[in-house]
Amino acid sequence: MKILTLNFLTCARKLCKSSNTAFPLHPQDAELEIVEQDMNVEFLRNILPRLMWEELSGVVGELGLPALPPTVPTLESLTEKKLKAAENDPTGMNVVEVEVPSQVALDLHRLLLETCVKEGKLVCGSCGHEYQVREGIANFLLPGHLV
């Protein structure tokens, strides 16, 4: 389960729906793994405005990962313009300006899309219910007495 997913999950109990403490779910005993993926700056641009930055920062801290910046990065900070020799130009005289992912984009990509919770549990801050995570999949099925 990608770290990005934690930005969208809340407790499944009806009693917790109205509680502010039911989001985000808090990872405990989490075993993390890195799953390499192709860089997708356009996806980061689209998802950045939807991130609950303060809550995500808290989850990152709970996992013991490097802290996020205090404010949400700007969309412009995700790419840098660099000069590059045009393809198929053996002389190297034709130089074009290209956009490449910035270090901010690379770090966000690594954290949100490549860092995964492989094993552990997610705990509701309101009711304390624990959702098990096994092999990267969280089990949100509630026992009958909690539905």
From TrEMBL:
Biological processes, Gene Ontology terms: rRNA (guanine-N7)-methylation; tRNA methylation
GO molecular function list: protein heterodimerization activity
Pfam family, one: Trm112p
Top-level taxon: Eukaryota
Signal sequence range: none
InterPro entries with a match to the protein in the record: Trm112 (IPR039127), Trm112-like (IPR005651)
Family, as annotated: Belongs to the TRM112 family.
UniProt protein name: Trm112p-domain-containing protein
Organism, as annotated: Delitschia confertaspora ATCC 74209
